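Order emerges. One example.
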Amino acid sequence: MTILSLSHILAFISSPVSEQHSRPFVFAVAQFSLWLPLAAIGIGFKSVVGERTSGSIRILLGQPGTRRNVVFGTYLGRLLILTTTIILALIIVGIVVTIEFGDLGSITDVIGGIIALFLFALAWIGLVVGASSVVASETRAIGLVIGVYTLVEPLWQNLVLRLFALIFTGTIQTPSQASVFYSLENPTWYLYVNRLSPTEAFNAARYYIPELLEGLWYGTAISGPTLPNLFGIAVLIGWATVPVYLGYRQFERVDLG
């Protein structure tokens, strides 16, 4: 993930537009987070179901502990692995950006970008571990998480949002995404529905959270649409908690014999 992120950042640095870029850290966070979902899938899709198919789950449950401990302990363990990867990536990216631009940008950009990235990581680990808790085989687990990834990543703009547009407007035309994070120019339904995707919620949060911190610390005005962006943050928290909770409930009921 770190290598792929750096390749995107280096491409950005070499472009003429980058010379005028005023928020390098916010941009850098967006670049390597493009690969975070795949990293989360690789780290977590076998987390619970792998123990189940290998039979080691019986040993774990034979010791002091419960199925809840297995699921949520696995969740925290996989989150720790992904967080370690993110920290290493941030260190490398921070060095590259500082060398090129002289600094990382404002402190609110750095802290806000890290918070947004951590919420994004929580969302994907919650989704993947939840899926791993629901199914009975590794094949089904990877199929489920890849299916969800496909819907909320490559197919989100061209299929899912168009279906929502058909429901809300009667056509499959979607508004321009250019100002969706900064203004209320787009229709209300679009500002909220678009943020149901964890990626789009993150893309909004990496701009909004720094502005929110700046407003709280320095009293400056927040230019972005407040309610849709708060909704997007709530969506990330929802992706981080609801799938793993539903996975735990299903795992608690299943017969492991």
